[in-house]
C-alpha cells in the first residue's frame, strides 16, 4: 500500500487572499507575472497529458489570470500536437497574446440563457477548468454559473475535469460553495495548495490535489496553515535512544472509564503502548479492574477514588490522558481538580472536556498559562459545548472554532473531522492529510488521545504530538485493509507497522515541479 500523500515535508497552505497578496508582493519585487503564468500553464499541460494521454481537450477560460493559465495550457498542448479547443467565457483579448501566435480554435460564449449544448462534447478526453480561481467574489454570476453547470454535466457524463488552482465556484479562502461549483477529478494548485481545496465542501469538489512550484519566492511564514504529511511526520516523530529504559521513553497515565466504560481507557492505553510509550498506567473505576487487567495486563491499575494513588501515578508519568469514558456524574469535579493540578503535559479529551464545558469545577479559561502543555481533543459536539455555540456554527467555520478555543484556553486544540485540524498559538493551523471515512467509528477518539499522550510523553511538543497521532492513527487504519469494516480496536495493533514503515511517500507523477500529490477523499 503506497504511502500517500507524496510531499517532501509539511506543505504550506494559502487562503485565496493570502495567495493574492503573495502574488502581488512577488510581482512588486520584480517577479514577472507572465513567467509565473507561463510556468503554471505549462505544469497544467504536463498534468493534462498525464491524465488524458490522448484525445481532444477542452479548456474553459474566464476573463482573469486563472483563464490566462488556461490559455497557456491550451497553447502548450497545441504546440505538443494535441487536439485542443478553448471555450472562452467572458471577455479575453482576440487574438490572445498568450497564444504566442499558435492557432487554437476559440468558441466565445456570452449569453447565459443560451449555453451551446455542444461546447463541451461528451467525447472530450479532458476538460480543463480555468474559469475562476482565487478571484471569485460571491456567487458565480449567471454566465459563469452556466459554464460551471456544463462542466458538472461533462463530469457526470464521465469526462475527467482538471481544475486549475481551485475548482471554479469554490471560495479559495474557505472551501465554501456559494453557488454551483465544478466537480474536478484533479485540481492543480499553483505555488501552494489553496485552503479552500482542502476544507469541505471544497475538498469533495477538488478530487486529487496536486501542487506545482512555478517560480514564486520563498513563502517563509507567509501563510496561516500547513498540510501535515507523512514526510513531515517521519521528520518530527520522537525516536528512542539506543541506550535507554522504560521510564525514559515515555510513561503515560490514562485516567478515565467510569463504571462499565472500561473499553475507552483500554483503547487509549493500548494505543499509547503501541505508539511507543514505555510504561502505561490505567486509572479507572474500581469496577473496571478485572477487565482492564485481563485485557491489558501490561498496564498497572489504580482505582480512581484512591486520590493519593492517582497523584502518585501521575507524578511518575511524562504525560496524562484524561477523559476517555470518564462520565460526568457527581464528584468528578474533584478528580478534574486533582489531575489538572499536576505539572504534567496532558491530553484532555471526551468527558473531561464536557466537565470543563459545564465549568465543573472550572472552565477552559482556567487552563491558560499552564506550566505544562495541554492538548484539547474535541469533536464538533464537544467543541460546540466548550464555545457555547451550535454544532452548525462550529462546522460553518472550523478553523475559526479551533482558533477561538486556543485563544480561550491557551492550549493546543485538535478539532476532529474531515480534515482534523491542529491549532496552537503562534503556529500555522495544521491540517491532517490522511482523512478517510473508514475512521468514522466509535472509539477512534480514545485511540487518538492515547497515541497523542504517548508522543507527548516522549517529548514531542503538543502540536506535533497531535499531528503525529492523527497521521499515524489514520495510516495504521489504512494498513489494516479493513476499509469500512474497521473497528477502533484494530488500530492500536497496526500502529507499530505504521510507525515502522520505512517506505518513502510515493507518487506516480514524474514532474520536477511537483510539491504535493494528495489523493481524492475516500
Ligand atoms: N497573479 C499571479 O501572480 C498569478 C496568478 N495565477 C492565477 O491567477 C488566479 C487569480 O487571478 P485573478 O485575480 O485574475 O482572478 P480569477 O481569474 O480567479 O478571477 C477573476 C475573474 O473572475 C471574475 N469574477 C469574480 N467574481 C465573479 C463572480 N462571482 N461571478 C463571475 N465572475 C466573477 C472577475 O470579474 C474576473 O474576470 C489564480 O487562481 C491563479 O490561477 C497564476 O497564474 C500564478 C500567478
Ligand atoms: K478554476
Automatic annotation (TrEMBL):
What are the YjeF C-terminal domain coordinates in residue numbering? 229-502
- Residues bound to AMP are 416-420, 445
**Keywords tagged on the record:** ATP-binding, Isomerase, Lyase, Metal-binding, Multifunctional enzyme, NAD, NADP, Nucleotide-binding, Potassium
Give the cofactor note text: Binds 1 potassium ion per subunit.
List, alphabetically, the Gene3D superfamilies matched.
3.40.1190.20, YjeF N-terminal domain (3.40.50.10260)
EC number, UniProt record: 4.2.1.136, 5.1.99.6
Does the record's keyword annotation contain Transcription regulation?
A: no
- Entry's family note: In the C-terminal section; belongs to the NnrD/CARKD family.
What task does this protein carry out? Catalyzes the epimerization of the S- and R-forms of NAD(P)HX, a damaged form of NAD(P)H that is a result of enzymatic or heat-dependent hydration. This is a prerequisite for the S-specific NAD(P)H-hydrate dehydratase to allow the repair of both epimers of NAD(P)HX.
By what name is this protein known? Answer: Bifunctional NAD(P)H-hydrate repair enzyme
Amino acid at each position: 500500500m503506497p504511502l500517500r500523500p507524496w510531499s517532501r515535508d509539511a506543505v504550506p497552505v494559502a487562503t485565496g487572499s493570502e495567495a493574492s497578496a503573495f502574488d502581488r508582493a512577488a510581482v512588486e519585487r520584480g517577479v514577472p507575472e507572465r513567467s509565473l503564468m507561463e510556468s503554471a500553464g505549462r505544469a497544467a499541460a504536463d498534468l493534462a497529458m498525464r491524465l488524458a494521454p490522448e484525445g481532444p481537450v477542452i479548456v474553459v477560460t474566464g476573463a482573469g489570470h486563472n483563464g490566462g493559465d488556461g490559455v497557456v495550457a491550451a497553447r502548450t498542448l497545441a504546440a505538443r500536437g494535441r487536439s485542443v479547443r478553448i471555450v472562452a467565457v467572458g471577455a479575453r483579448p482576440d487574438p490572445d497574446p498568450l497564444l504566442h501566435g499558435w492557432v487554437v480554435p476559440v468558441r466565445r460564449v456570452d449569453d447565459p440563457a443560451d449555453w451551446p449544448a455542444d461546447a463541451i462534447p461528451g467525447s472530450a478526453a479532458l476538460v480543463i477548468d480555468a474559469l475562476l480561481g482565487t478571484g471569485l467574489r460571491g456567487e458565480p454570476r449567471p454566465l459563469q454559473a452556466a459554464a460551471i453547470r456544463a462542466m458538472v454535466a461533462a463530469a457526470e457524463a464521465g469526462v475527467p475535469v482538471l481544475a486549475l488552482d481551485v475548482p471554479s465556484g469554490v471560495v479559495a479562502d474557505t472551501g465554501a460553495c456559494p453557488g454551483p461549483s465544478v466537480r474536478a477529478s484533479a485540481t492543480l494548485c499553483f505555488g501552494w495548495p489553496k485552503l479552500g481545496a482542502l476544507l469541505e465542501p471544497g475538498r469533495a469538489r477538488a478530487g486529487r490535489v496536486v501542487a506545482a512550484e512555478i517560480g514564486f519566492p520563498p513563502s517563509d511564514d507567509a501563510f496561516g496553515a500547513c498540510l501535515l504529511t507523512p514526510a513531515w511526520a517521519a521528520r518530527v516523530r520522537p525516536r528512542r535512544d539506543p541506550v535507554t529504559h522504560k521510564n525514559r521513553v515515555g510513561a503515560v497515565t490514562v485516567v478515565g472509564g467510569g463504571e462499565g466504560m472500561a473499553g475507552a481507557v483500554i483503547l487509549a492505553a493500548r494505543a499509547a503502548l503501541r505508539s511507543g510509550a514505555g510504561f502505561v498506567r490505567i486509572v479507572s473505576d474500581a469496577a473496571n479492574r478485572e477487565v482492564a487487567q485481563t485485557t491489558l495486563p501490561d498496564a498497572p491499575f489504580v482505582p480512581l477514588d484512591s486520590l493519593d494513588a492517582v497523584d502518585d501515578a501521575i507524578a511518575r508519568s511524562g504525560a496524562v490522558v484524561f477523559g476517555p469514558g470518564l462520565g460526568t456524574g457527581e464528584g468528578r469535579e474533584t478528580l478534574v481538580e486533582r489531575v489538572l493540578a499536576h505539572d504534567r503535559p496532558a491530553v484532555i479529551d471526551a468527558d473531561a472536556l464536557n466537565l470543563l464545558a459545564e465549568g465543573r469545577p472550572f472552565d477552559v479559561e482556567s487552563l491558560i498559562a499552564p506550566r505544562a502543555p495541554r492538548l484539547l481533543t474535541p469533536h464538533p459536539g464537544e467543541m460546540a459545548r466548550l464555545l457555547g455555540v451550535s454544532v452548525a456554527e462550529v462546522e460553518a467555520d472550523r478553523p475559526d472554532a479551533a482558533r477561538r478555543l486556543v485563544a480561550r484556553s491557551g492550549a493546543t486544540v485538535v478539532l476532529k473531522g474531515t480534515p482534523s485540524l491542529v491549532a496552537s498559538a503562534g503556529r500555522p493551523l495544521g491540517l491532517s492529510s490522511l482523512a478517510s471515512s473508514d475512521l468514522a467509528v466509535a472509539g477512534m477518539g480514545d485511540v487518538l488521545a492515547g497515541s497523542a499522550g504517548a508522543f507527548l510523553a516522549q517529548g514531542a511538543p503538543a502540536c506535533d504530538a497531535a499531528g503525529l497521532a492523527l497521521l499515524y492513527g489514520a495510516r495504521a487504519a489504512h494498513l489494516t485493509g479493513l476499509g469500512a469494516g474497521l473497528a477502533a480496536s484494530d488500530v492500536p495493533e497496526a500502529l507499530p507497522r505504521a510507525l515502522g514503515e520505512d517506505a518513502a511517500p510515493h507518487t506516480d507523477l514524474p514532474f520536477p515541479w511537483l510539491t504535493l500529490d494528495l489523493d481524492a477523499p475516500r
